[in-house]
Amino acid sequence: MTVTNLKHKLSKHMNQQSSSATKTLNLLSIGQRGVGKTVFLAGSYIELHAGFTTERPQKLWFDSHNGQEQEKVEKILNYITQTGQYPPPTMKIADFNFSLKRHGWWKTKTLCDFSWWDLPGESCDFNHPKYQKLVLSSHGCCAFVNAEALVNDSTYLPQLTQTIDRVAAIASLVNQHNIKYAIALIFTKCDLLAPEPLSLLQIEEKIQPFLSRLDAANANYQKFYSSIPLVTFAGVPQLKPTGAATPILWIVSELKQLHQKQPKQDLGSGLKQHIFSPVQQSFIFRQLLRSKSLPLMLSGMGFLGVLGIAAFFWSVEPPTIAPKAALDTNSKIQAYEQLLQTDPDNFDALVELANLRIQQGQPNLAIPLMEKLVRQEPERLELQLNLAQLYKLTEQLPKAESTYDRVLLQEKDNVAALVNKALIRIERGDRQTANRLFTQAEKVAPPNLKAKVRDIAKNSLSGRE
After folding, report:
1. pLDDT at site 263
2. 140-146 sheet: strands from edge to edge
3. In a shared domain, residues 265 and 362
4. DSSP output for 408-449
5. For the residues of 292-333, what is the DSSP string, one character each?
6. Which candidate, 265, 302, 278, 282, places its Cα nearest to that of 403?
7. d(CA 227, CA 230)
8. Does residue 90 contact residue 120 with C-beta atoms inside 8 Å?
9. What CATH number is associated with residue 68?
């Protein structure tokens, strides 16, 4: 698909969009260090911004809200001009916020805003706390493969396994829960390969196992071949992109079309709609870390956390404590307690210590840790739901119910809070309120879970739960 065709497609689907109706699309980038993610973004920007003036604007172009993004890109381009080399691999997570704009007959329209997260290769890891948040906030992702290394370096494909596993894991989750998500598979450094079609055949042969996994997950993906050579013109080194912007134009167009008739939903919100309990949410990332095919078998975990609680969130690496595997549980507890003495608000340490206390059957000791986490981030409902479960485990029903009430004040249709509050109402002899809460929970539950809510209500109200 060409840039011209994509521009036409974008205009068709966005003709009625105004800048006031836009919402930011979050695009995740996945790829090893040095694969060319930063060069790809710079090349895309150059291609759509080249020749732009206020008198003769492009039909479509990237713009930034405050000029900061343009400064970031200009810094990359200045490095190329001064050194005659591609920029070094990204050393820290950086975000670029752009607007995709279209010049019409009478005025300029903002078709959408999007954020591009440029990550160091080693940060593209489900163990990385920041990366976890970016994954759950994303609406789509760009996965990068070094085409030149894929074809010419026999050691590259095994190195690519982690990238493949991460993308396939996301695709599997998206498929299982019918989430609207798009994946652009971008082969970089194609300008270093022999002319087509031989190179395309070689790439296709090498990448078939990966494509089979995406196809098996019914992934919404498209392949792109990126060529952004570094050339010298009039003695000045510069990038010469050809079709570099096509992947971003495609993924933005695809996401706008997918979300055309309903509010945009990121990956985390999509999973939340399927009523993963806080316990189950932790297992999402545990499965992402452990499984290549990501079957995500959650049967036996209980429903809405009703049957108990095992661990919070996802696994995080223990901060400044080494190495985790070598420590027994008591040593870990001691290490985290020492860390919290010097850094009492360390979020990761609080989470890990709470997990360990629960594993030892000491929920009463986990409660003050969870209460502190809730105070740190009161807007995160999963924290409050976990705290409520701990109150229930320790038979502090008034505190549990008031916590569920706080959740419902923030999100009146939170099914987990509605069902758990109903169960507490039954325990306290208020079957009328419980019945009303169950009815509301069934009404707002996703179609595939309405029957489960109904069963819990029936069993609980009849005294069999």
Report:
1. 60
2. 60-63, 94-103, 108-118, 25-30, 140-146, 182-188, 221-225
3. no
4. HHH-TT-HHHHHHHHHHHHHTT-HHHHHHHHHHHHHHS-GGG
5. SS-----TTS-STTTT-----SS--PPTT---GGGS-HHHHH
6. 278
7. 10
8. yes
9. 3.40.50.300
Give the H/E segment covering residue 122: none
Spatial CA neighbour of 131 closest among 169, 186, 104: 169
One domain for residues 247 and 285: no
Q: Is 48 exposed, middle or buried (0-12, 13-18, 19+ CB in 10 A)?
A: buried
- 184 with 250: CB under 8 angstroms? yes
Q: Which of 254, 270, 286 is the last residue of a domain?
A: 270
For residue 358, give the nearest of 402, 321, 312, 298 by alpha carbon.
312
Q: Give dist(CA 247, CA 256) in Å, integer.
A: 14
Residues 242 and 290 in one domain: no
What's the pLDDT score for residue 45?
A: 81
Q: Which domain holds residue 92?
A: 3-270
pLDDT of 11 above 70: no
pLDDT tens digits for range 14-55: 443 333 334 688 888 888 888 888 888 888 888 877 544 444
- CA angle 399/400/401 to nearest 5° reads 90
